[in-house]
Backbone:
């Protein structure tokens, strides 16, 4: 008889994928949905930069309604990095209503052209398209799947203030079932007017080689970030079988997969968790790590394994270095 075939490792069984967070760089905190006095916000970019920098932010994306920002129009040399963007809204050809945040330099869009033409122009210019506050907008899961969005807001702090409809997790998981590299972002959508004062309740933390617009947008596109409403991830590694993490004190750590799939880690005798190791089920179509603190605030990774990268349809995504 011939020699027995070597046992297949978990990572080999996750065919064609890699652990997404095996990349070098540093963690950078930022906001990807924000409004200024150019549309319906209450503060100017310099005022916003001062406020957010004091709260530990490294970058902000300027996403005014139908008013595209650009590297030329945004402040330079201030306390944080500004990244261009715009928010579009309107009905698609099926009659569904959307708000969509576009990240990156976009020119030539105007409200008179309508949502479909605006999205086409943004995508043609390489912008990332993020489905904004789908719960607040009344979007169904079918709406979320009808457009090739690069991501979705899994949490929107402004919408929690407005009417409590801040959670986009059900839309995100529907999208992950069809496109496992779909990004899930937590955002402020801050307006900072007397009637809408909430801010610093949703952000992302990217793993990027430097603090520049190409590096930050590249990290978002590659999915090398986590989204948070409070908890902090300090370390995230994979040993071929289990995912290991270190984080701020949390009540529970979860691996979340399709449908009812879920694995939990918590301190059974009470107390909080700062480190954990969870075996990764080899047969899930996707795996997201979620942590939740005592106050119910959560943080989410992108799907842990990938073979392509977020926003890769029709656009090549560079392979990251092997380890960090």
Residues:
């Amino acid at each position: 008889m011939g020699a027995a075939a070597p046992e297949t490792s978990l990572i080999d069984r996750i065919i064609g994928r890699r652990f997404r967070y095996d990349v070098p760089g540093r963690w950078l905190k930022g906001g990807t949905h924000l409004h200024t006095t150019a549309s319906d916000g209450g503060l100017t970019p310099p005022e916003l930069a001062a406020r957010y920098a004091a709260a530990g932010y490294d970058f902000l994306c300027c996403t005014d309604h139908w008013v595209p920002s650009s590297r030329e129009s945004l402040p330079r040399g201030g306390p944080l990095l500004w990244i261009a963007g715009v928010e579009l809204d309107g009905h698609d050809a099926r009659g569904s209503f959307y708000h969509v945040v576009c990240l990156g330099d976009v020119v030539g869009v105007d409200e008179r052209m309508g949502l479909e033409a605006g999205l086409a122009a943004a995508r043609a210019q390489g912008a990332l398209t993020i489905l904004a506050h789908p719960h607040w907008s009344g979007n169904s899961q079918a709406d979320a799947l009808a457009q090739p969005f690069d991501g979705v807001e899994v949490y929107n702090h402004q919408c929690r203030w407005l009417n409590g409809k801040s959670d986009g997790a059900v839309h995100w998981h529907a999208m992950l079932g069809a496109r496992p590299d779909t990004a899930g972002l937590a955002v402020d959508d801050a307006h900072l007017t007397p009637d809408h004062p909430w801010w610093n309740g949703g952000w992302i933390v990217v793993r990027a080689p430097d603090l520049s617009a190409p590096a930050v947008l590249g990290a978002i596109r590659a999915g090398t970030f986590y989204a948070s409403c409070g908890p902090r991830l300090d370390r995230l590694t994979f040993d071929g079988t289990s995912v290991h993490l270190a984080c701020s004190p949390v009540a529970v750590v979860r691996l979340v997969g399709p449908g009812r799939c879920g694995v939990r880690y918590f301190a059974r005798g009470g107390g909080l968790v700062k480190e954990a190791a969870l075996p990764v089920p080899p047969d899930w179509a996707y795996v997201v790590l979620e942590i939740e603190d005592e106050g119910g605030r959560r943080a989410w990774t992108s799907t842990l394994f990938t073979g392509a990268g977020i926003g890769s349809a029709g656009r090549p995504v560079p392979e990251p270095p092997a380890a960090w």
